[in-house]
Amino acid sequence: MAGLLEHPGYDGEKLRRVSEQLPCREVQAGMLLSLMGEPQQYCYPSLFIYGHRASGKSHVVNVLMKELELPHVTVSCVECVSVALLFEQVLLSFFGCDAASLLPRSPSISDFVRIYKQQTSEFPSKQTRYIVTEQAELLRDANVNLLPALLRLQELVEDNVSVILLSEIVWDKFRPNTGCFEPLLLHFPDYSKAELLHILSAHRHPSYSAEFYSSYVNILLGVFYAVCRDLRELQHLAALNFSKFCEPVAAGKVKETETHKLWKNIEPHLKKAMQTVYLREVSSLQWEQMDEHETGALRGLSAHTHVELPYYSKFLLIAAYLASYNPARTDKRFFVKHHGKIKKTNFLKKNEKTSNHLLGPKPFPLDRLLAIFYSVVDSRVAPTASIFSQISSLVTLQLLTLVSHDDQLDSPKYKCAVSLDFISAISRTVNFDIVKYLYDFL
Amino acid sequence: MSKRKAKDAHLPIGECINQVHQILRKRFCHQQLPDKPEGVEAQHKHLAELLKRTAVHGESNSVLIVGPRGSGKTMLLRSVLRELSQETEVQKNLLQVHLNGLLQTDDRIALKEITRQLQLENVVGDRVFGSFAENLTFLLDALKKGDRSSSRPVLFVLDEFDLFACHKNQTLLYNLFDVAQSAQAPVAVVGLTCRLDVLELLEKRVKSRFSHRQIHLLSKLTFPQYLERVRDQLSLPDDFLDGKFAQEWNAAVTTLCEDRSAEEVLQRHFNSSTDFRSLHTLLMLCLSRVSVARPSITPADLLDASRLCLADANANMLHGLSILELCLIIAMKHLNDVYEGEPFNLQMVHNEFKKFLQRKSNSMYNFEQPVIMKAFEHLQQLELIRPADGASAKTQREFQLMRLMLDHGQIMEALQKYPQCPTDVKQWAMSAFA
């Protein structure tokens, strides 16, 4: 595959090295190279490269820039929390620290362009300069004028400079209201299954044969491909689970060629990995150490949902859950001891199909919470300050959320923000059968 | 054949191609000025006369050049200025100040820039002293002291004029127009904007001082003219190093423009937009394929470039989703169909997906809720779905209301193109009732 890239103006040896580092991305690299042209020629003012995560966007651009030794700066927009940092990095790598120190304390785009212009008139470059911005979607949240100004930077600074934007999000979601200079759009397509296999197999373990490793990757893709196409994630999973895969071979039970037996051994392990490591329930270190104990015996992060609460807080939370998930008209039926006659047809509306556990919690006023609370707590409770402070501390624990504005002191509205499993566990500790009181489960 | 001829007679082919790239790239990327502006002769004459009156006779003027993006506003102004600068009288007389609404985001910065570009006395070593108010009075004094006969005229060019109208109180615009209207130093204020309603943005007092002279650059291009423009943009100038190569190249361009399939492609682009920028994007993509091995542009190149330009980005992104994410999108599509565009949350989508799995009784896609949540969040990161209400932190993740940012047609088309799409998923997407 190597040696596909050709372009006059660049050293053939360097290009060969580039194409070695870019498996399955020769087409894109070649296209980018032909758009960039020879170093001294003008490049298009701005290029926008989009594609899925881990489809090799930054890798291709960075390898091209590094190997061909083009004057460039790579800026991550996550790091640049203010535009000043961005400007500083650009000036620093193009003109050295003297230029960067010329920037005033909180520079505007105007300052940046002025200093840039000054510097180019002093040190004109014969080559195209490239500014590569990664995660460019964050530029939208920065200064409104930053993105349009970057897109036409070549015109503004009158220098042979080109801005390359890399993003996961399509260009249509970037365009400002009044329009801007349209960049050249380039798409990096996702890797196909065969390409993933090719790339993943390249990092094989030296002590095993290539076929053995690629059959392992094949099994891994068979389990994970339907869920995940992220190359980095797959690489990580492949590295983690390989030791388990070759365990029977190392023990001498199975030969390398007996694929079916190996598959039988690894498949449940991989299925378990999807529920644990893939979701970061257990860390990869824990996962690697798990071999000694039974896999999955370890409790993941989300298993630790048990929270110790005071007695009244538990009931307050239960009351909040009931208030959130039951319609208000059913309160009388559930919580009033001698409620008289309520028609069953009236109570259960047959045409009401969507359950509240599908729609999510509804907001309720404080009065309703307290009314339900007094009804579910058997003993007499005085509405003391401690009860009210427990409500507000439940809000700070994010078990309840305040829906109305913070400044509303009388009749604030709340929502319950816990799951059914959580609240059932809580009600079990106080011997309260919550399912009996839920409208959805009647 | 042509290659050998060129080699025998003149420069080697590599050199020629290099030159072609150099010249055309300057034209497409660097927006190099054409020798003669096309299609805007009347506007050109109007603007040239106006600026000349300021430069030579000391008349104060203000004008707005209005036109959509890529319609050649800057090109028009620059070519007028280039023409003017050839006259010696204007050259030594006229001062120019260029401001851009993107860079000079408030009046203070703009004022500093003006003093810097006019090289006024209080500028020492490229640092401006004095507060905003001092600067303004200083500048106004300097302008006021002058009169029609003695002082040099100043040309103010305000690029992205509509952004200047967003400044506080529009102080800068008011002062500039005020100077232009009263008998002070002669100034010409030229604004460039792409907003047709730009006058509505101005305050009343600013609007009344503006001369209401507008130059519109609305393209009245017909398709034959468009073809002509394509040919002009691609052809090499007469003073090309290798005359023979240039002739051959130009002949190839002419045949390209007469080709049936190329014409169809260009017609499609003409129908979508007629501005220079989108044309340059297309031609730049064509040009990038020209190399020593393929020394001319073929209709196939044009077709490929056009396909790249017109590709649907959302379809491209949908192609790379995993099968689980695609299933979730189909479930969302069904929810949208049933509930007529009401927002949905993860629980509903999962419920819809579960219904599909029950019908199929196929455990292949039986994923747990957290795995589905991860896929759902990935869709949100790609902005294929968006929160219906802005505030996100207040509700639990699985109950947050979302909207799908794709339409029915896009999903169905993506499904057709999806590699190895399982048949049952396809059928599920087709069926109206989930």
What are its keywords?
heterodimer, A: 442 residues, alpha/beta, Rossmann fold, Arc Repressor Mutant, subunit A, 3 domains, 3-stranded antiparallel beta sheet, 21 helices, 46% helix, flat, B: 434 residues, 5-stranded parallel beta sheet, two-stranded antiparallel ribbon, 22 helices, 56% helix, 9% strand, disordered N terminus
CATH superfamily of the largest domain in chain B: P-loop containing nucleotide triphosphate hydrolases
**Largest interface, per-chain counts?**
A-B, 71 and 70 residues
- The helix fraction of chain A, in percent, is 40-55%
Number of domains of chain B: 3
Rg of chain B, rounded, reads 30 Å
Largest sheet of chain A: 5 strands, parallel
CATH architecture of the largest domain in chain A, please?
Answer: 3-Layer(aba) Sandwich
Envelope shape of chain A = flat
| Beta strands of chain A, count | 8
SSE order of chain A in H/E notation?
A: HHEHEHHHEHHEEHHHHHHHHHHEHHEEH
CATH H-level superfamily title of the largest domain in chain A: P-loop containing nucleotide triphosphate hydrolases
List the uncertain runs of chain B.
Answer: 1-8
Instruction: Give the total of beta strands of chain B.
Output: 9
| Shape summary of chain B | flat
Question: Spans of chain A of 5+ residues with little confidence (pLDDT < 50)?
Answer: none
Structure classification of chain A:
alpha/beta
- Bin the strand percentage of chain B: 5-15%
